[in-house]
Write a structure and sequence with these properties.
The protein is mostly beta strands and 163 residues long. It has one domain. It is built from two helices and eleven strands.
Length: 163
């Protein structure tokens, strides 16, 4: 019996030690795992008070943006392009959430190509000082949620550029 109590205590601490990507007052908007096992999450407050980006491992959130969630909707932009017509018309859908932090531009992307019947997801991190970009590739099999909710909600300013 004593061993079972120790096991339960250990398991409860392990659960509590895991990173909290979506808090109790939030809903998941969009997420995926990267090919290196990290997680990308966009979550919003249930009352649409804020939008937040979180990135990290199952044990630790390595980056959360913005640090101050006041007026967070104004810190993100959305870009979207769609050409219908399926494979015959090289149909495509491109969706991006864009934000800037400490001299870096982050582009969370979800793309679909009907011609190749292929999806891509990830984060493009652009260093504006030296022009070097890092592409964090996501696993499309782990995608949860949709960026369409952001577009349909009309809470984000549209970006002028596509990525």
């Amino acid at each position: 019996m004593k061993n079972i109590l120790y096991l339960l205590l250990f398991l409860s601490q392990a659960v509590l030690a895991q990173a909290e990507y979506v808090k109790n007052n939030e809903v998941l908007v969009f997420s995926f795992k990267t090919n290196k096992g990290k997680k990308v999450v966009l979550a919003k407050d249930m009352g649409d008070k804020y939008l937040v980006y979180r990135f990290g491992t199952k044990d630790k959130i390595e980056m959360e943006f913005p640090g101050d969630i006041k007026n967070s909707w104004s810190k993100f932009k959305y870009s979207y392009y769609r050409r219908g017509g399926g494979k015959a018309n090289a149909g495509v859908e491109i969706q991006n959430i864009i934000f800037e932090n400490n001299g870096f531009k982050y582009v969370i992307y979800y793309n679909y190509s009907a011609e190749e019947d292929e999806q891509t997801v990830g984060v493009l991190v652009m260093n504006e000082a030296n022009g070097k970009d890092i592409k964090i590739v996501g696993d499309t099999d782990t995608v949860e949620g949709s960026l369409m909710e952001i577009r349909e909600g009309g809470l984000l300013e549209m970006a002028d550029e596509m990525y």
